[in-house]
Predict the 3D structure of the following.
Amino acid sequence: MKIALMLLLGISAIVLSSCIYETWKNKKKITVPMLKLLRSSLVAVVLNFLILAFPVQWLSEILYGLHFANVSWMMYFMLCFSLSYIGSKPENHINIPIMRAVLSFDSIALLLNFWGGHAYSTKLYNTWGGGFCYICVHRWYLSIHALIVHILMAFIFIALGYQTIKAPKVYRKKYLYPFFLLMIVIFLDLMHHLEWNPVDISVVGYGVGTIILYYYAIRFQPKDLARRSLGIVIDDMIESVFIFDAEGTCIRMNEAANNMFEMQDKIGMVEEYFAEWKKKVDIRAESGKSWEWSMPRENKEKHYLARYHGLFDEKNRYIGSFWTVRDRTEIVEELRKQRFLATHDHLTGLYNEEWFYEKVKEMLDTEPEEEFYIVCSDIQNFKFINDIFGRNVGDELLIKMAGRLKDRVAIGGVYGHLEQDRFALLIKKADFDPTIFKDIPKEVHANKDISYPVNIFLGIYEVVDRNIPVSVMCEHAIMAVHTLKGGFNLEIAYYDEMLKASVLKEQQLTSDLDKAIENREIQIYLQPQITGEGTMVGAEALVRWLHPTRGMVMPGEFIEIFEHNGLIVKLDQYIWRLACEHLKRWKECGWGDKYISVNISPTDFHFIDIYDTFMELIEEYQINPKNLRLEITETAVITNLEKQLELIAKLRKAGFIVEMDDFGSGYSSLNMLKDIRVDVLKFDLNFLRNSNDIERSRKIIKSLMILSHELEMPAISEGVETKEQVEFLKGIGCNLFQGYYFARPMDVKTFEETYM
Ligand code: C2E
Ligand code: CA
Ligand code: CA
């Protein structure tokens, strides 16, 4: 018994010492009161160990005195600790100075027992298991001491008991266990005091109890609390969380996960979903990896990002898993939207140009054996429709065409909206339907009276060479479209060898121009302008290419090409120069009253300073600007109205006669008339020829003629072919004519011989 007790005390002493060290090192909140409690417990354990170890009466008496004094202090520290343990401050509950005074008095009284013998005496005692030690025999003062100790104990008891009842359930254990512990210690202590047990084994209780209390205070973490907080945290997460045990049963789903499976929330559904996944997942290697995942929900495709986490025990055995699933639908949709915007035309929703090329290439690569057509469409005079009927009419037309493509083109085709009125289509040769746009209304309407025909042309390039860029294939198809002119039915043109030849011809003409100018193959023909009285007053200079192999090439064959590639600027400047040369010569020959009109292409305005160029010419050739008439088209003026009006004003101020060419055949004439100030309006009678109600056309010409008088811009009629026309025009006040009726354009020599 004695040995066993000593062993227990020894072990307690060692453990308490290490607790003290740890507390001191870790500096917990509970440190100060806990440290004091630990220290006093250690003292109690050590003193009792010594009492048992050295059964010497005088020593035992001193040690007992120290022990009893220490017990009071230990209880005091225990009270302080308990109060701080329950989250309160000792000084709020006890008067510390008085308490310390009482305890000091008690300590002195107990220590004085050595001389007074008022508290206890000692006697030798044989413990049950053998071995002697001195035990205490109580005297009167020890009862006072016991009273102090038990009052302190009662306080501790009340504090912990109260807190046990008051605390929320999760925290109850924190107070309940120390409370029980304390009860056991008190019980042991009472046993000793009531002398049921002569050896005070309660000291062991103090030691072990303090150790347990220490661990409880430091280590206590309410598991429930942690679990509950985690539960709340998980439920609050936007991500869905699924926790599975090792067998694959879902043991926990958070709120978001529940919502995610709301529609399919049948038992086993979740397991089934994840079982599929788990087959694919390497449970060890792929822990922490993410997967994209979509599933239909509420008639909508939902997109998720799922992340798998394997759970393993300390021996690395698989014990379960959890999955977090994030709803990425919004992000995915946003990305898709952006991608759509970047790759689609926003008016029609079809592929835009770049994307169409990309997709065509893809398809051609995936089906190398198939025969394909590239088809490009063109609406005749689409710009006109847009300008006159309004953009919305034009847009509506395009949307209808896009709709037709969407409806009619089989899966094996790619289609897109390249620009303005240009749609493009890649389609298997066998699937191509030439009537694809046949349902498109044949006319557009501004109201029920005003309509305009809608003619859609298709140009087709058969993909024979897959190595050329798709954009070039489209260019070929567009080239084919350009060969279609007029006509009121849907027309189709194929890019074929003939077209290729004409393209080659174009290229030939382009490359030949420089040489042609040098060799004087480029010439002007003059078409006289005649007054009502039959007098020739001047002529229009019209270009002719006297080609060594092709013979005479008319401007209709090359002007457009050169306007397109910019060479027109070179050509025109050369023609103006020729005109100036003749004017200079005429002046010297005494024909200085005759003028020559030259044409200015709309393209010229983009490349050169028209004013400076003509000023330099008249300066160089020393001619009167009045003799060099300038023909400008409406197109040139309307593209940059303000600037052009300014330029026209400047030219007129410098003495040039400016003519509005082809007046009446464009479409913004009336609109422009209010701002424009030119010297002459040049009427093209072509539209008279093309009209089926001559009478009405004549009325219009008549009105325009009156208008030109009113606006003080005299008129010249060109394209006059019959006597009848001349009579009519004379009748309505036009007195200047140009046309086959009088003379065709002729070379300068003939002109001079005839008229000068
Ligand atoms: P434009 O300026 O309207 O020239 C009048 C055109 O009408 C000329 O055709 C002329 O030959 C033709 N013409 C004259 N009288 C009659 C007639 O009674 N009936 C018919 N049906 N036609 C008649 P051309 O010479 O073939 O020129 C065609 C167009 O080429 C010109 O139309 C003009 O726009 C352009 N062009 C001609 N020479 C030049 C030039 O040196 N520079 C530029 N930029 N364009 C030119
Ligand atoms: Ca002209
Ligand atoms: Ca003209």
